Amino acid sequence: MKIIQTTALMATIVTSQGFVAPQQPKDATTALGMTSRRDALATSFATILAISVPSAAYAIDACPKGSKNCLRQTWTPPSSTSAADATSQLRDALNAYPQEGQEDGKVDGGGYTIVSDSGDGSFKLEYRSSGKGFFAKSFNGGKPFIDDLVIEPNGSAFEFRSASRLGDSDFGVNGKRLNYIGELLKEKGWTGVGLPN
User: Which candidate, 196, 161, 157, places its Cα nearest to that of 71?
Assistant: First the structure.
């Protein structure tokens, strides 16, 4: 993902009007028609700089168009909340999610794991179904279905993406998960965008 973002950024920089690649005057070539070392170095440096510029802060993937197993939301803490406090509140909400899942284990009955917590508000979690339902037994060999929740800071807000790894539909599981976490954040004064009606 970072490679794609960096490549897209490089293409944007190179094609934008604000970036001008070093131009070589016609008389800057050697007698053999080769580029001077100075111009070659300047061009190489500009290319390396364009490649190494970090991409848009913590961008996460959009859900596929028409997806029935992926949701995106944006949550913003109150303006008086520091970045550290917002991250702490978010971490508390994630940890408050019931390990046994919701609805007597019908939603995330296999629990969840925090895969990464960068400390700056970036989180990755895996949620598992119980593996006991009809679809898990019939279509997944009795193994739990796994969903991924990715949260990334974006300015003062946090971008959420919850998506199923398999299948065309999640039967509302991603929405129920995000609603649960969202209710905990609302209690702290957070506001959300992209919420289900």
Answer: 161
Kindly tell me if the per-residue pLDDT of 137 is higher than 50. yes
Are the CB atoms for 173 and 107 separated by under 8 Å? yes
Tell me if 164 sits within 8 A of 70, measured CB to CB. Answer: yes
For residue 116, name the pLDDT band (cuts at 50, 70, 90).
Answer: very high
CA-nearest of 42, 56, 82 to 188 is 82
3-state helix, strand, coil in the chain (%, to 5): 35, 25, 40
User: Strand, coil or helix: what is 3?
Assistant: helix
Nearest to 158 by CA among 58, 69, 88: 58
Whole-prediction pTM value?
A: 0.69
Q: Encode pLDDT of 4-50 as tens digits.
A: 444 444 444 444 444 444 455 555 555 566 666 766 666 655 555 44
Task: Order across the sheet with 123-128: list the strands.
Answer: 112-117, 123-128, 146-154, 157-164, 70-76, 191-193
Residue 159: Cβ-neighbour burial (10 angstroms; 0-12, 13-18, 19+): buried
109 is written with which tokens? Answer: 């009955």
